[in-house]
Amino acid sequence: MKLFPNNFLWGGAIAANQVEGSYNHDGKGLSTSDMLPSGILSSHQTREERTPGIKDVAIDFYNRYPEDIALFNEMGFNCLRLSIAWTRIFPNGDEESPNEAGLAYYDRIFDELATHNIQPFVTLSHYEMPYSLVENYGGWADRQLIGFFEHYVSTVFERYKDKVKLWLTFNEINMSLHAPFTGVGLQEDASEQEIYQAIHHQLVANAKAVKLCHQIIPDAKIGNMLLGAINYPFTCNPDDVIAAMHENNKWLFFGDVQTRGKYPGYMLRYFRENGIEIAMEDDDLDVIASASVDFISFSYYASGCASADPKQKEVGNIVASVPNPYLKKSQWGWLIDPKGLRILLNFLYDRYQKPLFIVENGLGAIDELDENGEIHDDYRIAYLNDHLVQAREAMLDGVELMGFTTWGPIDLVANSTAEMRKRYGFIYVDRHDDFSGSLKRKRKKSFFWYQDVIKTQGASLTVK
């Protein structure tokens, strides 16, 4: 029982706006991500104010993808999660005809993956959308975006139906509650009324994408993606238990709608008590009810605690929670909780009874080259080892787990702060926050560790 199943999907996860660069090449339009040169924690710039950012070049995956995919193959990947940049296909978001250069680019990517027997796992919208849709429509506040998104996804489904069989709709869809510009194209001071209205439009668009995928690619699977921010009660005080329930419901709401096909009662109560009224068209709820996702995917980096005392909170990974005194923190203040992954897997599987997929898990750290130019990232190995051990424990508990794609298999630009020094990869990229560096790739110690984990189907993992 030490082995993961033979059909388990092993790989890594990247996002177009954090690796590709070439932000304005081959007809690509500006995205909301391009307007955040200092990451999603900063205020966005307008088109006129825009200054160069590190993501403009990122790690130049746009041109260097054959080299990077060869390295992924060397590690033994049979799956790569990546995203399509909406603005490469429809630069402004509302065009009738797609940009052929953008479509052809992803054809080349998928063909290159196929030569290495790596299955592409594609996210349709990963923390970016055409900035023109924000300028001209106010982002997802306007329900016209449902139609624009539907046109985009039907275009890529038709184009890649023979090449891509695994899809995700929106990356960490619940993050819109914490970073509305990144998630739904609204200003950071948008009201809850405005944010939840935009989220409703996105949930309708999600359902339409699921239906289109089933129609156009019947042998494909399409899932949603949640930021798996599980919260424990800070104490056994019932008030803290209820506080944890409320905190978890904030993100489980998205999974409930995308899986069960209706707005849950706890959310309807929240809307009533906070004066939130969602404008819907007559068939919106029918559309949502008719399109349950095939599987649940999620990111997991840390757990948190919830307390009825608001003074207890502090901000970790963008989301505020109460620190857990039993856990250590990473260099960026994120709580390291491998057993929380097992708890979350059981929690989600019990709730939804659908296959699960861990699509992001990893450790951001400052990696130092030794005197021989090598990187001995034992801290990353320990982090991932312990999380994979707990994932295996969850499978022994009966959880149906499809795969594991670590974030990110190669150093990339951090989304929250637009930094290169916060490195996640098994592959080092010579690129730095001052825009310097040769972009040369180098294998870290963790590269060979992950290679061995995949080769042995997890038998090489260390149980403490």
Automatic annotation (TrEMBL):
<protein>
    <submittedName>
        <fullName>6-phospho-beta-glucosidase BglB</fullName>
        <ecNumber>3.2.1.86</ecNumber>
    </submittedName>
</protein>
<dbReference type="GO" id="GO:0008706">
    <property type="term" value="F:6-phospho-beta-glucosidase activity"/>
</dbReference>
<dbReference type="InterPro" id="IPR001360">
    <property type="entry name" value="Glyco_hydro_1"/>
</dbReference>
<dbReference type="InterPro" id="IPR018120">
    <property type="entry name" value="Glyco_hydro_1_AS"/>
</dbReference>
<dbReference type="InterPro" id="IPR017853">
    <property type="entry name" value="GH"/>
</dbReference>
<dbReference type="GO" id="GO:0016052">
    <property type="term" value="P:carbohydrate catabolic process"/>
</dbReference>
<comment type="similarity">
    <text>Belongs to the glycosyl hydrolase 1 family.</text>
</comment>
<keyword id="KW-0378">Hydrolase</keyword>
<keyword id="KW-0326">Glycosidase</keyword>
<dbReference type="GO" id="GO:0005829">
    <property type="term" value="C:cytosol"/>
</dbReference>
<feature type="active site" description="Nucleophile">
    <location>
        <position position="360"/>
    </location>
</feature>
<dbReference type="InterPro" id="IPR033132">
    <property type="entry name" value="GH_1_N_CS"/>
</dbReference>
<dbReference type="Pfam" id="PF00232">
    <property type="entry name" value="Glyco_hydro_1"/>
</dbReference>
